Inverse folding.
């Protein structure tokens, strides 16, 4: 029976290795937040009790790093909404369910929220493929669902039935809106004529980004010297980058998520490339400067959110988030935070827990001041706000303007 | 013919739907909503698909690849040609089966680990080909040699073969807007038919031949059994089942992407069969159902579901090689006399207590499993000490039984944890508390059972 | 020049790509060596090897950064950077031995089929990856960038050419710069350590008593027992060496590609390591080395010379598949009886 004892002892060893996970710090947010339609909509009178809004973010699996900051952003918003009495007598409850990183797990989470928890609306899920799989579960029952990180084409028109589509929103600016602007601005300022592209071909986000890059480079008359690919989990880009640098491009265009983006930036600088590197939403994270250090200087990032924006709402959001979680927010957090406030606003303006009314109010939101800037939904329930082009200069993001025309000439 | 089949099947499906309704409602109350039940049933089919090959002595990890083929065939047929579920299922299984023949003939010459590795390679190749299918299709269409062959095939998949960019599998973005045709009743009926087929197979000439091949290939061959033939038949049947599961999966999730059917899925499928047990065909079905349900039942502990899955897999393969179904066989408990029985009871207790310890003890300030950190540490320290003591006394007695020490550990464990709960270090309303108590009680019970009768 | 044209290499930066191949090859070989040792001595395909690789990197990170890596990024070093390397090697070795005792020893004792061992190694891999995610979160971590010497060697300004060491550095830098090769001190360290370990290991296996004992046990454990060899000890040593190799590969990779530590960092290597040892010959130590460099060369060549760079992994797997079918013992392996 010796071995049973061993198992038991090893179980305990494992348990002791897993020291307790510290509970999330939940303080912060001293300044009364100014965000919200305080004047546009009257104080709600009919709302009372707890109003549950679902949140499907990835807490396990490959998308967990993004889901974690999303949940942080949404929880911060939940706390501010309740502290400020935005919903009158009612309490805003963020019912978060882990969506995993697969389609099946997202469907299960969404079904649980809709059928069991009885939410009035849902925020999430994290991945676009999960949104295609799980959004109709809520939308077909007339419960509005808002993606806060889904950038693939056709998210808000995924169903054959338009009355289902009417319930699907997103506040994450798709690559198709961000990238053309980025390319146009950088071509105009830097006079780029020939570029090389490197992208991840096994991920829907990076692959969509790549197709948009190709189209907008074509439109701007930029020659594409070569296209290289990488796959999830690859960390060595030196072979592809050596080939790219040998072609002497004016810029390297990259469609990658932040971890790969950091490696590509570091390795291309190591290989002696000092020109511009152009990236999309995937690059928009403080980790770019933290992890890549000096190598990140001169990286151009087209994005939906500008962390250094001095707009008061953005400043207070970054402060509150940093105080609560001990790290600067990334774009995922900012979009989840804004999305939660948008949902609360729709509930406040509807002054009802009827999902239909909430949907109508959500669709009619216009000029909502947020950390992302003034925000509206278009007729297709896609976000309308102005994307930014940023450059890493002096260890932080700066808005990329004509002043940088000679930046790379030095 | 479709019409006839439809009119025959429809009443059965309607009946199944009606019968299932109260059951599904009941399951939903414990956290198994209808989609989850569907995924459980699909995974049960996948478990059977790998069981068919394992049952014939072949360790093949190719089933995720065949599942991908089925899923993509189903998705293309329904989105491009407006196929029904029945047609998609038929063609999905056919294509997976046809591809399995040329793959199986050479690969099945390999054995054991070599076969496992080769089929891992096959799965990756399938995933990569699907990922780059559109680019490859253009290459083949424009090539002088392959063009004439490729064109008619591509015509089946896309309307405009001459477009600059072909959009068939759509690379990493995957196919979206797939209609939802899969219903729980379809899956239940499919699984019932499958079970009947497996039952018949088990008692047929073919089933006996396959069992003989698993026992010893050379002996089977010397008995005049056509080893190559039966192996390939089993491989193709497994592939067709995996293809069917793929079609059901695609027509339930609205969207498919290549990475959903990679190496991770192959490992999952293997885990279903191993967990349930390979002793008979019920095992993989049970394994698929259980392993899919566990993360949903433990939804509050989702973070830990990966660890739990791994631990279960390890515990089963090391301590319960027959899988879960072997627990249901009376001879498992009876064989080997009282000492063996006691050993098994103790194992069950140790597994339970071990699980509680691998599970978290401090989420949301320690209230889900209901442990406070120090309460758990103190409790565990005492029990580890006691177990070491058991080992020590056993060595001293030099081969003597250790019923008394085990009973001591069990009683101390129960008393200690009740005491800790009374002091308030453990939440007496928590699930983990009771699992722990039952586990410790089983440890003590094992000791009691093994205690020699004359001394009792 | 014509041959370069024929090979499609006329535009390539050949010295730089060769250096890339050498560096990638060292990494693959170092990783695959551990796979190969366990396979040759025990006949087990240990699929948790990539998880040991990943945990090696975490052991190293925790050793030199302290406990701050549990919740956040490593901002400053607690101990000198080099402490990470022995920590990873010892940690990886011990982890592998523990895995053996928990997951393989009971099966071995029961004489369970080898497939059971493959499955239990998969179970261990799942547990280890998920534990890492629980303990360190899924966020990618690394050493503070300023502390890792991974800026490429180039001709520095203001060198004191009186110093012989600096003259050597200057010469090295000039050679690299002239040939267009960019390589960092840490990458050179990886290559040197990998070569040292490979040579040392071949020596141990071929010449020492321990190596003889290992080969005897690999040939037949019962014969080993009869000859008075403590087989369990040999198994333990084999696992320790294998884990130490995985751990060292993990930490060296983490240093060279800083920041690169996350729970999934071993995933892509798990299957690649498999292709390497299949190509070189399952269980052959020299085969693992040759296979590693060969795979690296093939990848570099496909990416550099053809337009099918996006298919490089598919090519590698097709080759792998083909080799298994026509020559399952690999390039350098011994013929095996498991082929039917």
């Amino acid at each position: 029976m010796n071995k049973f004892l061993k198992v038991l002892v090893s179980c305990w060893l494992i348990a002791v290795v897993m020291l307790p996970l510290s509970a999330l710090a939940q303080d912060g947010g001293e300044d009364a937040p100014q965000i919200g339609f305080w004047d546009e909509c009257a104080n709600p009178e009919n709302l009372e009790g707890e109003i549950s809004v679902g949140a499907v973010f990835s807490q396990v699996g490959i998308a967990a790093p993004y889901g974690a900051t999303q949940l942080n952003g949404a929880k911060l918003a939940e706390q501010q909404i309740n502290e400020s009495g935005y919903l009158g007598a009612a309490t805003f409850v963020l019912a978060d369910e882990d969506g995993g990183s697969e389609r099946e797990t997202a469907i299960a989470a969404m079904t649980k929220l809709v059928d069991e928890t009885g939410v009035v609306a849902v925020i999430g899920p994290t991945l676009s493929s999960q949104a295609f799989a799980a959004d109709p579960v809520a939308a077909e029952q007339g419960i509005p669902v808002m993606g806060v990180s889904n950038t693939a084409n056709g998210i808000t028109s995924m169903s054959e039935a338009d009355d289902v589509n009417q319930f699907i929103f997103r506040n994450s600016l798709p690559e198709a809106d961000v990238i053309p602007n980025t390319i146009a601005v950088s071509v105009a300022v830097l006079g780029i004529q020939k570029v090389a592209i490197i992208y991840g071909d096994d991920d829907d986000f990076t692959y969509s980004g790549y197709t948009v890059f190709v189209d907008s480079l074509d439109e701007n008359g930029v020659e594409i010297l070569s296209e290289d690919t990488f796959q999830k989990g690859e960390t060595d880009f030196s072979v592809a980058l050596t080939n790219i640098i040998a072609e002497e491009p004016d810029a390297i265009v990259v469609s990658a998520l932040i971890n790969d983006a950091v490696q590509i930036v570091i390795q291309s600088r190591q290989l002696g490339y000092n020109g511009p590197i152009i990236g999309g939403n995937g690059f928009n994270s403080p980790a770019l400067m933290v992890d890549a250090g000096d190598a990140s200087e001169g990286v151009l990032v087209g994005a939906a959110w500008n962390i250094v924006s001095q707009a008061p709402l953005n400043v207070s959001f970054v402060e509150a988030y940093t105080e609560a979680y001990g790290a600067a927010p990334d774009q995922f957090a900012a979009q989840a935070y804004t999305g939660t406030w948008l949902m609360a606003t729709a509930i406040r303006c509807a002054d009802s827990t009827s999902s239909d009314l909430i949907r109508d109010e959500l669709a009619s939101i216009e000029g909502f001041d947020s950390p992302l800037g003034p925000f509206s939904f278009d007729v297709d329930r896609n976000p309308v706000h102005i994307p930014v082009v940023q450059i890493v200069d002096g260890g932080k993001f700066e808005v990329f303007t004509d002043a940088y025309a000679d930046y790379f000439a030095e | 013919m479709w019409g006839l089949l439809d009119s025959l099947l429809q009443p059965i499906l309607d009946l199944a739907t009606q019968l299932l309704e109260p059951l599904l409602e009941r399951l939903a109350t414990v956290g198994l909503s209808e989609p989850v039940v569907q995924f459980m049933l699909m995974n049960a089919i996948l478990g059977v698909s790998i069981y068919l090959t394992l049952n014939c002595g072949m360790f093949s990890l190719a089933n995720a690849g065949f599942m991908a083929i089925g899923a993509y065939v189903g998705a293309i047929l329904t989105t491009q040609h407006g196929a029904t579920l029945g047609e998609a299922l038929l063609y999905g299984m056919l294509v997976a089966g046809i591809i399995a023949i040329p793959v199986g003939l050479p690969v099945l010459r390999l054995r054991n680990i070599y076969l496992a590795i080769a089929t891992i390679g096959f799965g990756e190749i399938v995933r990569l080909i699907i990922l780059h299918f559109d680019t490859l299709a253009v290459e083949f269409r424009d090539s002088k040699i392959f063009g004439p062959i490729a064109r008619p095939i591509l015509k089946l998949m896309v309307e405009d073969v001459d477009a600059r960019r072909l959009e068939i599998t759509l690379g990493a973005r995957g196919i979206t807007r797939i209609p939802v045709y899969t219903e729980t009743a379809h899956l239940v009926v499919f699984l019932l038919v499958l079970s009947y087929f497996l039952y018949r197979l088990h008692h047929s000439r073919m089933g006996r031949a396959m069992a003989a091949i698993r026992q010893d290939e050379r002996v089977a061959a010397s008995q005049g059994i056509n080893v190559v033939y039966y192996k390939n038949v089993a491989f193709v049947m497994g592939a067709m089942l995996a293809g069917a599961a793929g079609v059901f999966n695609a027509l339930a999730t609205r969207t498919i992407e290549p990475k959903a059917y990679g190496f991770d899925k192959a490992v999952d499928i293997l885990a279903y069969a191993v967990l349930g047990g390979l002793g008979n065909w019920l095992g993989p079905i049970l394994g698929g159902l259980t392993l899919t349900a566990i993360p949903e039942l433990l939804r509050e502990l989702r973070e830990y579901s990966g660890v739990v899955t791994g631990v279960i897999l390890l515990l089963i393969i090391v301590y319960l090689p027959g899988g879960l179904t072997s627990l249901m066989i009376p001879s498992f408990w009876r064989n080997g006399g009282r000492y063996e029985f006691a050993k098994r009871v103790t194992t069950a207790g140790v597994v339970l207590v071990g699980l509680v310890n691998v599970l978290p003890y401090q989420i949301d300030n320690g209230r889900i499993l209901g442990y406070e950190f120090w309460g758990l540490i103190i409790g565990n320290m005492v029990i580890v000490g006691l177990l070491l003591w058991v080992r020590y006394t056993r060595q001293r007695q030099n081969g003597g039984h250790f019923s008394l020490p085990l009973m001591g550990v069990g009683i101390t464990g129960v008393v200690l944890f009740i005491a800790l709960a009374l002091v308030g270090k453990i939440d007496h309303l928590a699930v983990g508390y009771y699992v722990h108590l039952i586990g410790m009680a089983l440890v003590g019970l094992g000791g009691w059972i093994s205690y020699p009768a004359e001394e009792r | 020049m014509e041959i370069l044209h024929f090979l499609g290499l006329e535009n390539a930066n050949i010295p730089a790509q060769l250096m890339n191949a050498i560096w990638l090859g060292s990494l693959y070989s170092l990783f695959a060596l551990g796979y190969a040792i366990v396979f040759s001595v025990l006949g087990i395909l240990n699929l948790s090897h990539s998880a040991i690789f990943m945990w090696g990197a975490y052991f190293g990170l925790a050793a030199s950064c302290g406990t701050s890596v549990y919740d956040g990024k490593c901002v400053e070093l607690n101990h000198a950077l080099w402490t990470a390397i022995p920590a990873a090697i010892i940690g990886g070795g011990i982890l592998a031995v523990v895995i053996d005792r928990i997951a393989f020893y009971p099966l071995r004792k029961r004489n369970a089929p080898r497939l059971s061992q493959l499955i239990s190694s998969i179970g261990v891999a799942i547990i280890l990856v998920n534990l890492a995610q629980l303990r360190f979160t899924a966020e990618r971590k690394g050493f503070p960038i300023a502390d890792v010497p991974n800026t490429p060697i180039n001709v520095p300004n203001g060198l004191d050419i009186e110093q012989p060491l600096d003259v050597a550095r200057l010469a090295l830098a000039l050679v690299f710069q002239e040939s267009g090769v960019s390589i960092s001190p840490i990458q050179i360290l990886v290559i040197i350590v990998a070569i040292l370990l490979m040579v040392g290991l071949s020596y141990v296996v071929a010449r020492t008593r321990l190596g003889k004992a290992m080969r005897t046990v690999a040939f037949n454990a019962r014969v080993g027992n009869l000859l008075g060899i403590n087989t369990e000890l040999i198994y333990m040593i084999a696992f320790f060496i294998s884990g130490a190799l995985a751990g060292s590969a993990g930490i060296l990779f983490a240093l060279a590609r800083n920041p690169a530590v996350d729970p999934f960092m071993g995933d892509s290597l798990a299957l690649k390591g498999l292709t390497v040892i299949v190509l070189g010959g399952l269980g052959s130590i020299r085969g693992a080395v040759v296979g590693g460099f060969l795979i690296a060369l093939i990848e570099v060549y496909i990416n550099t010379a053809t337009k099918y760079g996006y298919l490089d992994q598919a090519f590698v797997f097709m080759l792998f598949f083909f080799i298994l079918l026509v020559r399952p013992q690999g390039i350098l392996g011994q013929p095996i009886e498991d082929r039917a």
Observations:
- Chain A touches chain C at residues 3, 6-7, 10, 14, 17-19, 21-22, 60, 62, 64-65, 68, 201, 228-229, 231-236, 238-240, 242-243, 245-247, 259, 262-263, 270-272, 287, 290-293, 326-327 (CB under 8 Å).
- The radius of gyration of chain A is 22 Å.
- Residues 29 and 320 of chain A are 5 Å apart (CA to CA).
